Amino acid sequence: MNRHPVHLAVYDTLADWETGYATASLARAGYQVRTVGASADTVRSIGGLAVRPDLVLDDVRPSGSSLLILPGADLWDAGDRLAPFARKAREFLDAGVPVAAICGATAGLAREGLLDQRGHTSAVSFYLAATGYRGGGRYVDADAVTDGGLVTAGPTEPVAFAREILRLLGVYEGEVLDAWYRLYHDSDPEAYAVLQRAGAR
């Protein structure tokens, strides 16, 4: 199957735990995951992992991507160094290509105005309210929310975040998607049997 890659934004202080379920599951499903940095310089995650980006942000086009994933990072709340990633998210959404943002990245999208007209979630409502955005009435108290091609989640919901991405891209659906979530979120052994019968993992 010929699919465009999934692009994972990487920057200093990115939260290691927030995107692993999504990227691993997408790679197993046949997607190539490419990392994207503001420059070609190596970045370092909160956990100390060094990541050298595959691509530079300016070279990434929605037409050559299946999805842009924006992980949380301390830098989202420390000035505007990551604002170019939020602007790239706007470019993707305007082109009809989905974006998935978790934790601090949701605040970056709020500042960019991308949550004003879409249902969304984050860590807590007042975290986003502090950005001064106009989308407070669209905030949903849920583990993860998908609306208008945009997936959002809070920092403690990497499995729900991945579930919404897998649903959005059509990797799993129905009983299989539910089983995937129950296995990785609830450690439900019965869910494994469902995935095994479906040839999923």
Summarize the structure.
The chain is an alpha/beta fold and 201 residues long. 34% of the residues lie in helices and 15% in strands.
Walk me through what this model shows.
The protein is an alpha/beta fold and 201 residues long. Helix content is 34%, strand content 15%. It is built from seven helices and nine strands; from the N terminus they run βαβββββαβααββααα. The strands form two sheets. Strands 5-2-1-6-7-9-8 form a seven-stranded mixed beta sheet, with helices on both faces. A hairpin with a 5-residue loop joins strand 3 and strand 4. Helix 1 (20-28) runs parallel beside helix 5, helix 2 packs across helix 3 and helix 6 runs antiparallel to helix 7. The longest helix has 13 residues, at 174-186. The protein is globular and about 50 Å long.
Overall mean pLDDT score?
Answer: 96
Structural class by SSE content? alpha/beta
* Form type: globular
Order of strands, widest sheet: 5-2-1-6-7-9-8
pLDDT below 50 for ≥5 consecutive residues: which ranges? none
| Helix segment tally | 7
Give the biggest sheet: 7 strands, mixed
